[in-house]
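[step 3/7] inverse_fold.run input=structure_tokens len=117
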């Protein structure tokens, strides 16, 4: 099963991680790639550099950042490959212990292929 993990930090947008946090997160990322759990991960640049695109009744509306709903901003994402939602939750807890306070939304990604053995 693949899960998309969307991280929303409680820290103010643009708060850089400490050297210690970078080192610890680097170890988790390296171990997770090697084990096959982590397929992709990236942090997001500040919302001031982004845009939101909405389609309503055939009309597009583009809103440039920054966005004021700071607690709803995605700070980064990961795509993981696990055997169950419980395993996805366990991995997310490890990540959040390093990333700090916030929230991760886990969304299973549609995939009709069998899990490789």
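[step 3/7] decode complete -> sequence:
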């Amino acid at each position: 099963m693949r899960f998309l993990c969307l991280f929303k930090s409680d820290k103010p947008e643009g708060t850089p991680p400490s050297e210690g946090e970078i080192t610890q997160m680097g170890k988790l990322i390296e171990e997770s790639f090697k084990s096959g759990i982590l397929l992709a991960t990236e942090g997001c640049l500040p919302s001031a550099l982004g845009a939101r695109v909405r389609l309503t009744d055939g009309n597009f509306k583009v809103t440039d950042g920054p966005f004021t709903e700071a607690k709803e901003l995605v700070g980064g994402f990961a795509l993981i490959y696990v055997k169950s939602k419980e395993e996805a939750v366990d991995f997310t807890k490890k990540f959040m212990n390093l990333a700090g306070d916030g929230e991760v939304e886990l969304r299973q990604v549609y995939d009709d292929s069998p899990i490789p053995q």
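[step 4/7] annotate
Helices lie at 19-35, 85-99.
The mean pLDDT is 91.
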